[in-house]
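hiii so my PI (J.) wants the whole complex modelled not just the main chain, which honestly fair. so below is everything: two entries, each one labled with what it is. i double checked the lines twice but i was tired so who knows lol
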Amino acid sequence: MTFPSLVLRNLLRQRVRTLLTVLGISVGITTVVALGAVTEGMRQTSGAIIRTGNADFMVAQNGASDFSFSTVQQSELDRIAARPDVARAVGVLYNITGVGGNAFFPEMGVRPDQLPAIVGRSTAGRLLSGAPDEAVLGEGAARSLHASVGESILLGRTRVRVVGTFRSSSRFENGGAYLPLRTVQRIAGKPDTVTAVYVTVAPGADPKRVAASIERDEPTLATISSVSEYGKVDQGMTMLDALQLAISLLAVGIGAIGVTNTMVMSVLERTREIGILRAVGWSRRRIMTSVLGEGVALCVLAGIVGMALGVAAAQAIMLVPTISSFLTPVYAPAIFVRAFAIAVLVGLAGAAYPAFRATRLTPMEALRHE
Amino acid sequence: MSDTAPTVVSVRDVHKAYDDGRIHALTGMNLDVEQGEWVAIIGPSGCGKSTLLHLIAALDHPDSGHVHVYGRDLDVIGDAAAYRRSVMGLVFQLHNLLPTLTAVENIELPMFGSGRGRHERRSRALELLDLVGLADRANDRPTQLSGGQRQRVAIARALANDPPLLLADEPTGSLDSDAGRRILDLIARLRDTRNLTTVMVTHDTSVATRADRIVEMLDGRLAEGQGAGASPGAATGRLVGARMLADPAGGTLQESRHRGGRHG
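here's the output for the full assembly
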């Protein structure tokens, strides 16, 4: 018999209570993992948007609450494009529309002559020629819409002809369609504006300096070159991060209360046993380690269950076509490390008080307990 | 023997009260116990027998006076847990075995923190089970054992770290006479083979007669006419050589002690 096995055996004495506590704590861990995977997926989608067309950086409206609300005026786009340190500036207008059962279909408006700079070559058919009713579908969108080159489809309330398809590593881009910029501006009711500008600097120019210079010259705009800067133009990610932190704290708080309740009951029921253990030579520290160990073991078990349920929940979310069209959950190791750390923290926090109580008992008090 | 055997337990003018001084459990108790001696403490209920045992076990502190074990004052002992683990073994009236553990696992409990590894703990526990005649019940839980068997497991547990001192609080109190006799036989054997010093609390005079010496307590102290020590001269009045009581042939206390050959 080892000390850890003794600790685990104590947990198995009240199987139903242990199971219910594990389930209670695992709900919090499940949320942490599922939300973490979704947030990480969102981050990856954002990263893909930032790197559209292999640009050096993206320019969007500074302080926009959501990236899709970003507005860059045509005049601003023209000034950026005219800079000598900028080789190419591609303006893209994003518009979300409903297509079939997918309420989150991305329509992306771009000047037809600039589309090759973004998607490269078409994988079927051709790219945009300039006609206002043309659309080039991402391969993912073509699959989900069962649309092939030459067909006419309805995007929102606009009928377009599919003239070609393209492939992108970005699920967001791959699940949408490129249309002529003016067409999307008309559909969205946003004439002479784009959502973002993708900038490729001139040979020899330093992207960081160019970005800083643009921010100086265009105070209403922000330049983004990495996901960490995405918060400048989209508060959504910041809110998600805050939400994740809040849920983690809630998970710790609620879980700790559950563990405290369970462990207080456990210590109370075993008061006499604690007295016996003290009488046979167990130190206060060993008693404390035993109770803390039970709390941590309980939470690690809940952590494992919660992680499994979290992955299952994230996958279940992907069954919603609207979400899966632009998002893939990303199970970054950091998510599981965080979930595990939360589980251990909950265990320690929840078992601290019962452990303290157990060590405060004198052997005689404990032995007299009925 | 008493001239040469070292004093293991020395209790001097110990007072102990409970309930904010309303209940006086010990009122100037004195006692000396020598190495290898088996002392039975008898007296009516509430006379302070168990309180005395708990103080010797360092489970509680005296209000005044001193308890020394092997020369160490228990009131200022640094690590009481280490003392309980290594110097003494405690046997309760009710076996106090953990119900979820098997017999062998219960015996392993005091060995946590003793520096023994898992295999050594198990091997030692099995050895002790064999010593108390329960080698074949190692994997039984307390509920699968009889009262006498449980108490034998409890004694084995008390001996886990090979302590020189055994403290037994009514070890036969919950047993029938046959099972009780076996427990007393076991304690006698341990005294004879291991030179184990035993302080046993009992209210049963017939049980006390198995000990080397009987100490009678009354109202929290030695009953009138008794000395704290174990000198043959003290075996007068109410401090009676136990084996003299048990042995109709009589003889001095000293003689009866040597009969077991334990100090030879």
